[in-house]
Amino acid sequence: MEEKDQDRVAIPVKYVVPDEIVTQYVTDMVVQHSDQEFLISFWEIQRPVLLGSEEERKAQIQMIKFLENRCIARFAITPERMQKFLDAMKENLDRYHKMKSNADHP
């Protein structure tokens, strides 16, 4: 064993989500890349508040020029970390589908 490996000490990592971190609902994502990194942008569409009768709501909809899709977070990630991210997402998605399948067919 090399001396470098003998000098290593395992230090546990504690994952902490600060109270000021807000969970937001993602309705859209944009992924871009360069030679050095991936840039992932998460978006949330801002739905309008429509009040009144059905006719009044229809009139309000006619006046809407656009819906705002607001960027709520952006992350730059290295290609190596991106692969780990994709692997973790695939693993979790597979577990989710298995759980849903078991719940639908007890």
Q: Describe it for me?
A:
The chain is α+β, with helices and mostly antiparallel strands and 106 residues long. It has one domain (21-104). Helices cover 38% and strands 24% of the residues. It has helices at residues 3-6, 54-63, 79-104, and strands spanning 28-33, 38-46, 68-77. A 3-stranded antiparallel β-sheet has the order 1-2-3. The longest helix has 26 residues, at 79-104. The mean pLDDT is 91.
What is the count of DSSP helices, taking H or I runs of 4+ residues?
Answer: 3
Largest sheet: 3 strands, antiparallel
Number of domains: 1
Number of strands: 3
Q: What are the salient characteristics of this protein?
A:
single chain; 106 residues; alpha+beta; 3-stranded antiparallel beta sheet; 3 helices; 3 strands
Outline:
The protein is an alpha+beta fold and 106 residues long. The protein has helices spanning 3-6, 54-63, 79-104; strands spanning 28-33, 38-46, 68-77.
List the helices and strands and how they pair.
Blueprint: H1 3-6, E1 28-33, E2 38-46, H2 54-63, E3 68-77, H3 79-104
Antiparallel strand pairs: 1-2, 2-3
